[in-house]
Target: Arsenate reductase
Amino acid sequence: MTPPAHVPSGEAAPVPEVPTVLFVCVKNGGKSQMAAALMRQRHPGGVRVLSAGTRPGAALNAESVAALEEVGASTAGEHPKPVDPALAQEADLVVLLGEEVELETGPTPVQRWVTDEPSRRGVEGADRMRLVRDDIAARVAALGEQLGLRPQA
Model:
């Protein structure tokens, strides 16, 4: 088999660089964990996914975890953790989830996702979390397209 024309004979094709995305919310127990789990599920191996909180809570939100499990997205091994400032500056993109989260990222590009908040409409519990999950899932899909990632088949 002949190597592609842009790769000199005998040399390996260049390995594409995997982007790093850091999802941040205040407690790192709900929305940022949801975004990370959904991104890992949609683009396994195509992106390095991290999540953290500016004031991490004690545990993951059980309703968030349950809503993710309904669609096969996993938070296995995850726990709330603080933002590592060096990692935030090394990431290719930081996504802030919510209006209340603030983070200095230096030159790292930042997106802010102000997600749907169904509780403002009186929707609570599992129904609330499903709506939040679905909003975040749509944003993750759009971000994957923006980054040129291919979703898992």
Q: What stands out?
A: Residues 1-7 have pLDDT under 50 and may be disordered. The chain has four helices and four strands.
